[in-house]
Amino acid sequence: MLLERIYDEDLAQASYFIGCQAKGEALVVDARRDIQVYQDLAAKNGMKITAVTETHIHADYLSGTRELAAATGAAIYVSGEGGPDWQYEFEAERLLDQSTITLGNITATALHTPGHTPEHLSFLVTDGAFSDKPGFLLSGDFVFSGDLGRPDLLDEAAGGIDTRFAGAHDLFVSLQEKFLTLPDYVQVYPGHGAGSACGKALGAIPSSTVGYERSFAWWGPYLEANDEAGFVEALLDGQPDAHAYFGRMKRENRQGPAILGERAPLAELATADVATALAADDIGVVDTRPHTQVHQGTVSGALNIPAGTKAASYGAWAVDPETDQRPLVLLAPDSESAMEMWDHLIRVGIDNVAGYVTSFEGLPTYTPQTLDPADLAGFDAAIVLDVRNKSEHTAGHIPGSEQLNAGRVLWHTDQLPADGVIVSYCQSGVRNSVAASALRRAGFDVIELEGSYAGWSSWKQTQDA
């Protein structure tokens, strides 16, 4: 048996490639939408992808299940659990508790493990060529390394009302009846790692075991004592902010993400044509450079979505393709960089990219305003806006500032003053540049605090010395 973990640092998301060498067939679980990595793995190992499935209706990224099936002819399997409100709306074979997917000697058995979501499945994998006992659990967003999938996400991002309590109860029961009944030696491969907003304390290690989690995870003592009330309280306390785009991901993943098919390389566009389209407000520009360079000057109205490990996350904070359908032009150093950025953007359903430019010479320019921390106290701001997480704000913030997470701010502009200047900050300036550029594009007057909270804290220490 071949088991490969494909990890996306951007969204802290893991998908899995399981292959039977004897039969030359493979199953992919929780695929992302840029699918070349799975096709390359299949080709490298002389296998054909014959089945694709997913653990649940994802909130943090757009599923590549349909995309990969369309490209390979693989059969699609999805959960049929969770009741009528949690049924997928596209054609696929439904899996119930104890349903199986077979590849030669390999069997993947679906376990209904609700809690994070009502329809959630985990997959218990048996390598029949080695043993008749299961050895691996693909746990999705049920059990992470050192943590559990949060049950409040439907309330926070998908319009649910107090579903968190039923979800927490279901999670407690799933642990009792499904996870803790497995042998200690079963290896656990979760769907996310550290940095994901799908839990509050995810470990960075790529896998664990049932026995290790049973013995050392924070929730173990609650299960051992059968203390459901204490478990629910501890589970729900301190969950991170849920990004607003999660609601869109839930809807699109349930309906069935659009199939892109083979994408041609992005074209390099003439700046004169881009300038004309900008003047007509027919396009948007994404500046993929670091915020420090953007602060030296950028295209007027451009969004700052810096290339790198968080491009998909930042893109989903700054672009809502449901309300703004203008195509995007990427400011990137070359074709390869532009394509890599596009790969990240399609993971969160930002598909409409018209091309790229390598320079903004000849385009209208703008230099974002910044404010020195020393000048903040005397500045007449309508609001000082902290775009960090609630936990960061609670741990320490600029006196008088108000918190609204960068991943939510574009969807909650009603919480901002309609007039006056907004002074915004994050921890170091990166997230703030993304949020500030999105707010400017939405019509707000935003000045970024130079150095953000770290810069202000350093200045404050010098004043207090």
Automatic annotation (TrEMBL):
Keywords: Hydrolase, Metal-binding
InterPro entries, sorted: Metallo-B-lactamas, Mito_Persulfide_Diox, POD-like_MBL-fold, Rhodanese-like_dom, Rhodanese-like_dom_sf, RibonucZ/Hydroxyglut_hydro
One Pfam family it belongs to: Rhodanese
BP GO terms, sorted: glutathione metabolic process; hydrogen sulfide metabolic process
Coiled coil: none
Gene3D superfamilies in UniProt: Rhodanese-like domain, Ribonuclease Z/Hydroxyacylglutathione hydrolase-like
Domain Rhodanese: 279-372, 378-458
GO molecular function, one term: sulfur dioxygenase activity
Keyword Glycoprotein: no
SUPFAM superfamilies, alphabetized: Metallo-hydrolase/oxidoreductase, Rhodanese/Cell cycle control phosphatase
Protein name: MBL fold metallo-hydrolase
Classification of source organism: Bacteria, Bacillati, Actinomycetota, Actinomycetes, Micrococcales
